């Protein structure tokens, strides 16, 4: 399995600390290590190789932060233009195919700016997901929402597979005028 960390972003959400040339994933929030470094630490032991996707302006920051913690990256994938999640994942998939031995690579894709405090629970969830992915399923991780938010999508879960994974029934994205979530 190859870990892929998406570290793109415009740096506009936590201004003035976060800005275009130094967005939040490179800041130390909420720990001593940066959000990128926390994500790199979190995937240790889960993958054979770790790649980071970022833009041209951030490649040296990514390399420096990985080096500071003694992490050897499999690759730093440069986005020619930031176009959000799906194109970034496609770049990572092409990169993984180029460096594979012909076998279909298994990718663990995550954002660099997530805070996950229970690393053991994260590792356990990844192991469950890995079994599902090896069986040919596309797997996504989700958390139970505390309130509706127009910036996020919501997955309606269906039947449990017996190992802690659930089938996805539907996906809903709230629009700005909606105030409640019914799943």
* Record field, number of beta strands: 6
Low-confidence regions: none
Helices and strands, in order, run as EHEHEHEHEE
Q: Please compute the radius of gyration using only Cα atoms.
A: 17 Å
- Give the proportion of residues in helices: 25-40%
Specify the structural class: alpha/beta
Distance between the termini: 33 Å
Beta-strand percentage? 15-25%
Strand order of the largest sheet: 3-2-1-4
Question: What summary fits the major beta sheet?
Answer: 4 strands, parallel
Q: What is the overall pLDDT average?
A: 83
Tell me, briefly, the overall form. Answer: globular
Oligomer: single chain
The helix count comes to 4
Describe the protein in words.
This protein is α/β, with parallel strands linked by helices and 183 residues long. The protein contains four helices and six strands, in the order E-H-E-H-E-H-E-H-E-E. The strands form two sheets. It has a four-stranded parallel sheet with strand order 3-2-1-4, with helices on both faces. The chain is globular and about 45 Å long. The two termini are 33 Å apart. The mean pLDDT is 83.
